[in-house]
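Collaborator request, handled under Task 6.
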Amino acid sequence: MTLSNIAGKPITQSFVYEAFIKKIEAKIISDTSLPLDEEAKKLYDYTKLNLQRMKRVEKTFEVSEELKQILLSIKIPQHWVVITEGWCGDSAQNLPAIAKIAKVNSAIEFQIIERDNNLDIMGLYLTNGTRSIPILVSFDTEGNELFHWGPRPKEAQQLVTRLKNEGMEHDAFVEQLHLWYAKNKSAALEMEFKNLLNNLIKN
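Structure tokens returned to the collaborator:
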């Protein structure tokens, strides 16, 4: 059963992974024929590119046997909620892998909510005061938070912080970030999930 609220704040619509992808695909098709201003055109281009990235991660990422065994040791049901948007580049690189990880164990209920339709909830999970996404939050069946992750692996965050501090322009550091994702192939993400889940199980 999916969560209907987080910390008393109602969730405005949620999606399973496949439905979220279909919504993005439909959005791209509908926007193709629309006259778009400069900002809308940027979002359209980001969304289209990120859909391609998601499809690539879907095809290439496989959950390791070690992580599978950790996941299968979870006996008490959990709800995993990801806050994201279709135009988000970090989400494109991480969401497909997280969805595959969640599918390993049927005790994990996985749902996606859109940031801009759930700003009250997003406000609970700011990163340095910003609405950075994706954010994954895990809850028990009583709605108590077990852990949260995001908006990107720590190694990727360190890269972004360093490049920003060096004064690199936005588009340039985003390019470097996606090169890092391409080389890392979700290894850092998987390691962080191993650590999160092992710590949860031990406690």
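The cover message to the collaborator said: "The CA atoms of residues 55 and 107 lie 25 Å apart. The longest helix spans residues 38-60. Please let us know whether this matches your experimental observations."
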